[in-house]
Amino acid sequence: MSIFRSIFPLVSATALLLAGMVPAPANTIYTYTGNDFTFFADSTLTTSDFISASVTLASPLAENLSNANETAAALSWSITDQVSTINQASPDAVADLTLFFSTNSTGVITSWEFQDTAGNCATNCLQLVTQYFPQFPEDDLDQSSACVNNTCGIPSANNDTTPGVWHVSTTASAPEPSSMVLAGLGAGLFLPGTRRKRLTGISIVSQAARRNES
Questions:
Q1: 40 DSSP assignment
Q2: What's the predicted TM-score (pTM) here?
């Protein structure tokens, strides 16, 4: 019974420490880089500007998606023409986000529609778009455009000839706050047990020394 009492705290502490080491699931980040704009209508953007974007999801896109709506799954997003940027903090951007993806049998993006609008288009707003549909090449477009007094499309800049590319990465895993609490509890159980063992060892040595003296 005494052996059980001495071993049980160590087993419990070890279990808690191991539980505290479990990392949080890593998010998946998809990053798009478009090609330089080639057409301009009263725009101050130049041929050095282009559409780039990123979206963070809790898990990778599934395989063989067909124009799947991932709007609600986006944890965060950003799209820019290198001068202006729209993200989840921009006015009205959350309501206007459109995010659709198709993937192949390995989960690689094969077509997409990513657009968002910031501001009120009845007065002044900015719309940034990247979309690519291999079956409808006439709709392929990277574009930055404005709407002023409900007149949209000028000024604007776009590239409707060559689609950009997507890259995928993951965030670094970090321990969940609850896991850190478990690790702390494990350490709290383990350290006193270690100290008791050390003190017990010292006591046994002291008793042996006193017996030898007598």
A1: E
A2: 0.71
| 8 Å CB contact between 144 and 51 | yes
Within this chain, do residues 52 and 103 fall inside the same structural domain, yes or no?
Answer: yes
In sign, the C-alpha dihedral spanning 117, 121, 123, 128 is positive
For the chain, give the mean pLDDT.
81
**Two structure tokens written together for 190:** 């383990």
Band the pLDDT of 204: cuts 50, 70, 90.
very low
Question: For residue 121, which of 149, 85, 88 has the smallest C-alpha distance?
Answer: 149
Torsion of CA 20, 24, 25, 31, to 10 degrees: -150
CA distances to 56, 77, 175 from 96, in Å: 17, 12, 34
Nearest alpha-carbon partner for 35 in 120, 130, 138: 130
Residue 206 pLDDT greater than 80, yes or no: no
**DSSP at 23:** B
Q: Which domain holds residue 9?
A: 2-17+181-213
Nearest residue to 10 (alpha-carbon basis) of 196, 134, 166, 154: 196
Residue 199: the pLDDT is 47
Residue 40 lies in a domain: yes
Q: Based on the structure, what is the number of domains in the chain?
A: 2
Q: Is the bond leading into 25 cis (omega within 30 degrees of zero)? A: no
Under 8 Å between Cβ of 130 and 112:
yes
Q: Is 122 left (phi over 0), alpha (psi -120 to 50) or beta?
A: alpha
